[in-house]
Write a structure and sequence with these properties.
Blueprint: E1 16-20, H1 28-41, E2 47-51, H2 56-65, E3 69-72, H3 79-86, E4 93-96, H4 112-119, E5 123-128, H5 136-146, E6 152-160, H6 163-173, E7 180-185, E8 194-195, E9 198-199, H7 208-222, E10 251-255, H8 265-273, E11 277-281, E12 295-298, H9 307-312, H10 314-325, E13 329-333, H11 335-340, E14 343-345, E15 351-353, E16 360-363, E17 370-378, E18 388-394, E19 397-401, E20 405-411, E21 417-425, E22 428-431, E23 434-438
Parallel strand pairs: 1-4, 1-5, 2-3, 2-4, 5-6, 6-7, 10-11, 10-12, 12-13, 13-22, 14-16
Antiparallel strand pairs: 8-9, 14-15, 16-19, 17-18, 17-20, 18-23, 20-21, 21-22
Helix pairs in contact: 1-2, 1-7
Length: 441
Amino acid sequence: MEREGLPNGGQNKSAGFLLAAPQSGSGKTLATLALLRHLTREGVALRSAKAGPDYIDPAFHAAATGQPSVNLDPFAMRLGLLHALAFADTRPLVVEAMMGLYDGAADGSGSAADLAEMLGLPVVLLVDCAKQSHSVAALVRGFRDHRPTLRFAGLMLNRVGSSRHETLLRDALEPLGLPILAVLLADPALTLPERHLGLVQAGERADLAGFLDRAADWMASGLRPGALEGLLGKASPDRTPAKPLAPLGAHIAVARDTAFAFSYPHLLDGWRRAGAALSFFSPLADEGPADEADAVFLPGGYPELHAGRLAAASRFHEGMQAAAMRGALIYGECGGFMALGEGLVDADGIRHAMLGLLPVETSFAQRKRHLGYRRLRPLPGAPWAHALTGHEFHYATIVSEGAADRLFEARDAVGTDLGAMGLRRGRVMGSFAHVIDGIVP
């Protein structure tokens, strides 16, 4: 018997769903990409999103659907911004969760389960069945019953080894009454290579289109016919978008390539809505910012993997020096902060000269993981005057710092004082924090 309130048979139609798993490594991203590509090939108009502060997965979503994907961060974003991003039009929304369903920030808030409830979306639970059979029932029952207010639309069983394995799983799960929407056989050929900050970026995979089509075929072969019928109804658009963060300038030149790929679409779109013009340039292609730009944004990314090319990019260096000389506001986040420094030591211990606009030396040879949400109080001279939320995730360390003003005072998700972070020298500034949202006056 199916639980009351679950969408089935076309009843209780939902405007989308959140695809989650009990833990990281269960195959969420592959299943999400496979499903998005399959539905797109079937002519289903939909929108996609990634829960949490992830820059890499949304680019894969966009490649799978041909449409932009957004981040939805239940810890760091205002509720109004979440709704504006999630329900921008009537298309149903497919959200890929982060980590395990109930995992959130260090204080326990901001989980994918929280996001599902904030948006009124049911959960499709993807379970990695590779090393279990009847025990799957205890796992699923625990996740289903842990939060009675959370709606579950059904299950996807991943990495199923054989028809006999499938039978054992079905027998164990039958008493729970949750629909099995898909049975996905283990396929070692469908892999997503990783590196230190997550997946190898979508733009770096020459075989991506073919890979997505193979993944879609895999999903189509395991998806029960009509399984998603009640989950892809029309959404009610939110016509009151949240006020964006103030733009850095009237014309913002944004670095964009595989070394500087980590910029949030909602942040850039918000600047556009606030009236700013945006242009883009590639430091790896030895391009500098537009001469008419009164602000330059160097997002995060992987400068540590391209330090030699960045050091040799003379036009990039000259263009950034010229922007600083004319008084443009220059702001760098994480990898962009590293590039603004005097030098970067790569994984082999080789130092590469960076832009020299901030008195900081960083090293990727001396690795230490820094990970977590940040609550930021801007100090005088920062681009914003109000409280901000952000996230930090990197392995680089600061080797030395010279005299400069600090940019933020920071606390982590549980309120621990992390002290001052970031540097500012005049109108050049940056830190390891990625700004996500803020209390916008």
